[in-house]
Every structure is written in structure tokens, then in C-alpha cells.
Backbone:
């Protein structure tokens, strides 16, 4: 009797896609730890800049282990057919973000474009309202970074008005 047949007899099947996802998460965690180990340590004692990537990697490993356990038990939810439209909307939003910043449009316009395309990807159809919300939120974020934290973000025509 093979291990697969005993699982099938119990009414469960190993979810191969779930195992692959768990392996991909484990690889991602390993890359994060490897990359963090290459950071130069600037502190004589305590935590340096490599601490946060390692914390994130630990979280990813926990997710990978949980996903692997559920995949081996066959307890992952059934997958639905993929609708590529939301994925393409977000990809287009990211492309707009890069293009707007690259052409000197600034943080507010670029991030607003990403916000609107992402909200459309999640099913919202109120483009005008989402644009207004995005402009207000990104303006507040820009002001917080620029005026309060004195950190620079990509500046464009709207940012120069502020």
C-alpha cells in the first residue's frame, strides 16, 4: 500500500500545488536570510539592519509550514478558476506608477493611479470617487513624509504646489 493510496482512502489527497507554494515560501525565506547576512553590520552590539529581514523570514517560514501541513492533509480550500482581469489591472497600475514617476509626474499622481487601478481590481466601479479619495490620501502621505519626517518622495507638479 502506497502512502498516496492510504491518503485517498481516508478521503484526502495531497494538494501538490499547496506543497509547491510551501516550497516557494521556504525558498523566499532562505533568500531573505541570505540577503540579510550580506548586509554590513554597523552596530557594535544589539540589532543591526539585518534583524528585520530575518523576522520577516521567520514569519514566511511559519506560513510555509502551515501551508505544507494543510497541503499534506488535503485541507486547503478548492481553487476557483482564475479571472485574469484583476491581475492585469494591478499590473497596469504598477506600470502606470513606474511610468508616471519616470516621466516626472510625482508621488501623488503615481500612487493615485495605482490606488484607482487596485480598487477597480477588487471590484469597485466608482472611478471618480476612488480618484478623489486617492488624491486626498496620497497628498496627506506626501505631506507627512515631506514636512513631518523630512523624507523626500518623488516630486512632480502637484508636489511643487505644496
Residues:
Amino acid at each position: 500500500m502506497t502512502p498516496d493510496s492510504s491518503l485517498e482512502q481516508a478521503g484526502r489527497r495531497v494538494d501538490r500545488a499547496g506543497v509547491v507554494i510551501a516550497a516557494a515560501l521556504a525558498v523566499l525565506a532562505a533568500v531573505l536570510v541570505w540577503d540579510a547576512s550580506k548586509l554590513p553590520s554597523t552596530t557594535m552590539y544589539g540589532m543591526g539592519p539585518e534583524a528585520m529581514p530575518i523576522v520577516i523570514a521567520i514569519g514566511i517560514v511559519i506560513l510555509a509550514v502551515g501551508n505544507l501541513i494543510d497541503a499534506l492533509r488535503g485541507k486547503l480550500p478548492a481553487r476557483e478558476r482564475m479571472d485574469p482581469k484583476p491581475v492585469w489591472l494591478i499590473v497596469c497600475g504598477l506600470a502606470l506608477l513606474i511610468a508616471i514617476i519616470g516621466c516626472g509626474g510625482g508621488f501623488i499622481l503615481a500612487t493615485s493611479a495605482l490606488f484607482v487601478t487596485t480598487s477597480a481590481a477588487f471590484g469597485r466601479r466608482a472611478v471618480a470617487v476612488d480618484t478623489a479619495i486617492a488624491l486626498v490620501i496620497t497628498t496627506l502621505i506626501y505631506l507627512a513624509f515631506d514636512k513631518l519626517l523630512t523624507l523626500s518622495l518623488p516630486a512632480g507638479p502637484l508636489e511643487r504646489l505644496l
User: Anything to note?
Assistant: The chain has seven helices and no strands. Residues 10 and 132 are 54 Å apart (CA to CA). The first helix runs from residue 3 to 9.
